[in-house]
Amino acid sequence: MHILIVEDNALVASGIRTGLELHGFTSDTAASVAQAEARMASRDFDACVLDLGLPDGDGINLLRHWRARGHDLPVLILTARGTIEDKVAGFQTGTDDYLTKPFDLQELVLRLQALLRRAGGRASDLLALGDCLVNMTTGEVVRDGAPVDISRREWMLLQALLQARGRVLSPAQLHDSLYGQDLDVGSNTVNVHVHHLRRKLGADIIDTVRGLGFRLGARYCGGAA
Length: 225
Description:
41% of the residues lie in helices and 22% in strands. The chain is an alpha/beta fold. It has two domains: 2-119, 3-Layer(aba) Sandwich (Rossmann fold); 126-220, Winged helix-like DNA-binding domain superfamily/Winged helix DNA-binding domain (Arc Repressor Mutant, subunit A, Orthogonal Bundle), CATH 1.10.10.10. The strands form four sheets. A five-stranded parallel sheet has the order 2-1-3-6-7, sandwiched between helices. A four-stranded antiparallel sheet has the order 8-9-10-11, with no helix packed on it. α6 (152-164) packs across α7.
């Protein structure tokens, strides 16, 4: 999952980014309204953590503009503004959740996971994929009753395909989901991770769409436990 962190405090943004990566998320940061708009224009995100007090504008107005333009990505406001009036304004503007500073990172992660679960139309964290059972919260995968050892990048790739729910993702989109926009790695890394997942979970777990990219295997689309 690829998260946009809109936070002008570099230390807070770095801490959130590091914490999310430890839980299998990829993230990009923006320190202002202008940077957030540029990030949103350059790629698709799965969710956003949004501060309100930004140096060139208010996060509430930014959210209002996103909703007016039809952006429906899940948004979690993370702010020091904790009055009931602030929270009401946030939800009326279109936020999906609201968390006040100071905050606990584990709570932030759990709230993001819940937002993404709801956005994906899932009531449970467990997904059944043929002989595999996937826990979308912990990243644990069991095949035929035995745990499967998959790497963090392999999990992030599988997670991106599951969230896409059958849509084709290009190698560039998957690269961003795994590494973000700021990390330059070899062009063949996505193919390598696809190969490893097929070997561990079955050859039909991922379909190749020639000239376009990859998608979750057709027989697994929509399989919830």
